[in-house]
Design a protein that fits this description.
Chain lengths: 550, 355
């Protein structure tokens, strides 16, 4: 074989290696899950699907999950879209407050959001008891109301950010053109702006729907008597473990199916209209004053304050004295923090180690895969592209179950090791890492690399010398985001972890389950700090544009 | 040494043949231009010379050395790109010094050579700037210095001027011309702009759909195009459909009738009887007042006064073809629309090409 063939082939072999890794760790577990749902249960020989159709409990879980997904998608859209429009088009007092919105979703992990809402509005919650003391009855926060409220306030920022980006890119001239053609302003907005912004809204709505369907933390903590797919899947997994993985696979397959259908519907809706994003100059925000300004500022402030409530409660909770499950509000102490930092720091150490390794590996792997995807395309590229995006459609619970089923024994036995936790982290964050690195690479012209090669520097050294330095800021920004989302990961890690390897979210989840809110808050405060410190350092010291990377 | 030679080379993208059994030789030290419309395969040929594209069949030789299998970083080439391709995070100095560092020259040599080439492109004093702080013309000069400072065996340029505005284009074009003549580095230059090609080249290879249609010095390409395609692409040409009564050998006089009048012209190649093209450049047609007796009867349809010259649209005979004629010299705007004139097509400079 001649030397040219070898140099071109190096990239092919690397692509093949990437494809094999993705196949083993993403496709193989997925196939395992789907396949064993058709296997026969040992108890009565029925397949998972026969059991599913026969048991009302399972069918209720499916319909509840879809219903919850639809309702929360609707409520988040109703909050997120107007908020985005108002921020993009108007200036009003206190608007800067809204700028911190994206931050709130990032720094408050779902498990902490659920916990803090409980501390306020649960049966023993601060607000419930205060109001109760005044004779005002507060309806139970468990079940539908809690699920909808908490998920709405966790997820509306996704719609807000997606819509905001689209509106900002929308050329106001288009709108004016429609008006000049005789359409009324309201009409003009609907006619011209909606088709342009709609794809962005639909994309973020689909994301929210997927997240709600896959949500584990809030669903488990607040669901109570409302049966939900993710909760039942996890419970089935815990009880079936080692026995008969039929029902857990079936339920996991159902949630995969729901997301697949939602994806399909989104594609279908988008393909019916010719939606093209016209990127133009965004409109300048208009000043508004007087009563409408106050109304807007007030409404925005309420949304932001509610978003920040969990943060305030976790700080308060961490420093509040507790006797067992009973919080003594108003009595301050540092005992909770001392306990988690000095007596039981294991979850903190575990989190730092696992997430640290996962973040580093994730950046290296996704940079490499993106390079192959963008700059060295070959016959394997579409398959790699597809597999790397696949985890987007899989909930953490599904990924966790797939990993446990696939690497429990045999040639690669990972159950009980830290490696399977790191692996779960890696898989969950892969699509984000690859998307981020790819978009950076697309912006670096091939000619820069070729210039270096033509000057006598071999291809790999050229990449390191001239391409990598240009990617560093984006990689660093992505690193911070991967870190913040990884340390908060619960739904996959709780499936794959083993005793002694609790991470912070797992430990917090268990403490909430036992009603030990003060200690959960203390761990929660540590977790929020672990998330917040890198963000603050990156944005202030290194001036990284973290949210541009998202 | 025998210069750069491409021997019977074919290139395909995913089964789609883009370069078809192409051969050409570029003498050492010469400035060779690949000229042709967008999509004809110029970039493909250039990237193949650089080694970024593998050839399907055929050989490439730099002098005695067969480089067909040599990877690009070992071909000893310099490249200049349309989008400059400067390293944005490196200073002007570090950009130019990059190739010398890759060649492990000592620091004193690097300093001296880099300084020398920056001076040659007129950018002394810009060493510490970054590409973003330069104008387009300055960026392309840096790119030129970066490619030339390593004294490559072959310099490759892919439309290096097309991102510049008209005035800068001429300036940078002159810099390229001077530097190439001084250094005598064998150069392949790609462009779709015939003026650039004519101004810079020792030889032009005019490409059409993956093949070289005609190769030769600029004067030859311009004055003796081998086909209507070449005549039309290089400079303006009137291309008129005619019928030959019999075959003509290459260079021989072809006689035919046009607008009911007899005309003679030179055959660019062996011509069969039947359909052919008449080629005449606007500046090679002479207009005379009616009654001079030496030309074809014609009528002025439109006049465009352009200062140093005038363009006319002229109809031959009563219902013959319409030609563009360029008149210069004293009184070049003397004919008015509607006026009857005589058009002289000089036999030596009027060509007939196969259809
Ligand atoms: N990477 C590619 N993959 C497939 N076809 C290509 C690729 N690059 C160029 N082509 C095709 O090859 C032909 C020649 O392209 P190119 O060499 O870029 O032409 P030019 O530089 O003369 O404009 C065109 O038809 C173009 O569409
Ligand atoms: Mg080209």
């Amino acid at each position: 074989m001649n030397s040219r063939a070898i140099t071109t082939n190096v990239w092919f072999w690397l692509s093949l290696a990437a494809l094999i890794v993705l196949g083993v760790f993403i496709l193989y577990p997925l196939i395992n899950v789907l396949a064993s749902s058709f296997g026969a249960a040992r108890a009565d020989g029925r397949s998972g699907w026969q059991i599913l159709l026969a048991e009302p409990k399972y069918l209720r879980a499916v319909s509840n999950t879809v219903l919850l997904g639809l309702v929360v998608t609707l409520t988040t859209t109703l909050i997120g879209v107007p908020l985005a429009y108002v921020t993009a088009r108007f200036r009003f007092p206190g608007k800067a407050l809204i700028a911190i919105l994206p931050l709130t979703t990032l720094i408050v992990p779902e498990v902490i959001a659920a916990q803090t809402w409980l501390m306020m509005l649960g049966n023993n919650g601060l607000i419930t008891r205060t109001l109760g003391g005044w004779g005002i009855p507060v309806p139970s926060f468990y079940g539908w109301s809690g699920l909808i409220i908490v998920m709405t306030f966790i997820y509306y920022t996704y719609i807000y950010m997606g819509t905001l980006a689209a509106i900002r890119g929308f050329d106001q001239q288009l709108e004016q053109a429609a008006q000049s053609l005789g359409a009324a302003p309201g009409r003009a907005r609907l006619d011209v702006m909606l088709p342009v912004v709609l794809p962005a809204i639909l994309a973020s709505a689909l994301l929210v729907f997927t997240l709600v369907v896959g949500n584990f933390a809030v669903a488990t903590i607040l669901g109570h008597k409302v049966e939900l797919l993710s909760v039942i899947t996890y419970q089935t997994f815990v009880s079936e473990i080692g026995n008969d993985p039929v029902m857990q696979s079936t339920l996991a397959s159902v949630s995969i199916g729901i997301v697949a259908i939602a994806l399909f519907v989104q594609r279908f809706v988008l393909s019916r209209g010719r939606y093209e994003i016209t990127l133009g100059r965004g409109a300048k925000p208009v000043d508004i004053k007087g009563a409408p300004a106050f109304a807007l500022a007030g409404a925005a402030a309420v949304v932001v304050l509610i978003s920040l409530l969990p943060l305030a409660s976790v700080i308060a909770g961490a420093f509040t004295r507790a006797r067992g499950p009973v919080m003594r509000w108003g009595e301050w102490t540092t005992a909770n923090l001392e306990r988690v930092l000095i007596n039981a720091p294991d979850p903190i150490i575990n989190t730092l180690i696992y997430a640290g390794i996962a973040t580093a590996l994730s950046l290296i792997f996704s940079t490499g895969v993106s390079y192959l995807l963008v700059k060295k395309r070959n016959a394997l590229t579409p398959a790699i592209d597809y597999l790397a995006a696949l985890p987007l459609a899989l909930s953490g619970t599904v990924i966790g179950i797939g990993l446990v089923m696939s690497f429990n024994q045999g040639w690669l036995s990972l159950t009980g090791t830290a490696a399977i936790i790191v692996l779960a982290y890696l898989i969950r964050r892969l699509p984000f890492g690859v998307r981020n690195a790819s978009s950076t690479l697309y912006n670096i012209p091939n000619s820069i690399e070729e210039a270096s090669i033509s000057l006598g520097v071999p291809p790999l050294r050229s990449f390191v010398a001239v391409v990598l330095p240009l990617m560093i800021p984006a990689i660093a920004a992505a690193g911070v985001l991967v870190w913040t989302t990884t340390v908060a990961e619960l739904s996959a890690s709780i499936v794959v972890y083993s005793g002694g390897r609790e991470t912070l979210p797992i430990q917090i989840f268990r403490l909430i389950d036992s009603g030990l809110m003060a200690q959960a808050s203390a761990y929660g405060l540590v977790l929020v700090s672990i998330i917040l410190i890198p963000i603050v350092v990156a944005t202030t010291v290194f001036r990284l544009d973290i949210f541009g990377a998202k | 040494m025998g210069g750069i030679s491409i021997e019977d080379v074919s290139v395909s993208y995913a089964g789609n043949r883009v370069i078809e059994r192409l051969s050409l030789t570029i003498p050492n030290g010469s400035f060779f231009t690949l000229l042709g419309p967008s999509g004809c395969g110029k970039t493909t040929l250039l990237r193949m010379l650089a080694g970024f594209l593998p050839v399907e069949s055929g050989r490439i030789r730099f002098g005695e050395t067969d480089v067909t299998e040599t990877p690009p970083h070992r071909r000893d080439i310099g490249m200049v790109f349309q989008d400059y391709a400067l390293f944005p995070d490196k200073t002007v100095f570090d950009n130019v010094a990059y190739g010398l560092r890759a060649r492990k020259r000592d620091e004193a040599t690097i300093r001296r050579k880099t300084g020398e080439y920056l001076e040659r492109v007129g950018l002394s004093g810009f060493e510490a700037r970054r590409p973003a702080e330069l104008s387009g013309g300055q960026r392309q000069r840096v790119a030129l210095a970066r490619a030339l400072v390593i004294a490559p065996r072959l310099l490759l340029m892919d439309e290096p001027l097309s991102n510049l505005d008209a005035k800068l284009r001429v300036q940078v074009r002159e810099t390229i011309h001077d530097l190439q003549r001084e250094s005598a580095i064998t150069t392949v230059f790609v462009t779709h702009d015939q003026e650039e090609a004519l101004a810079l080249s020792d030889a032009i290879g005019l490409m059409r759909a993956g093949k070289i249609e005609q190769m030769g010095p600029p004067g030859e390409i311009y004055a003796a195009p081998v086909s209507s395609y070449v005549a039309d692409f290089v400079g303006a040409a009137n291309v008129v459909a005619i019928r030959l009564a019999g075959g003509v050998e290459a260079g021989g006089p072809a006689r035919f009738r046009l607008a009911n009048q007899d005309i003679a012209a030179r055959a660019v190649s062996w011509l069969n009887e039947g359909e052919a093209w008449l080629l005449a450049r606007p500046e090679d047609i002479l207009l005379l007042p009616t009654g001079s007796g030496s030309g074809l009867a014609a009528t002025i349809l439109r006049r465009q006064y352009l200062g140093s010259r005038t363009h006319y649209r002229v109809r031959l005979g009563d219902d013959g073809p319409v030609l563009t004629v360029e008149c210069t010299g004293a009184d070049h705007a003397r004919f008015a629309p509607g006026e009857s004139v005589e058009a002289v097509l000089e036999p030596a400079r009027t060509l007939v090409a196969p259809r």
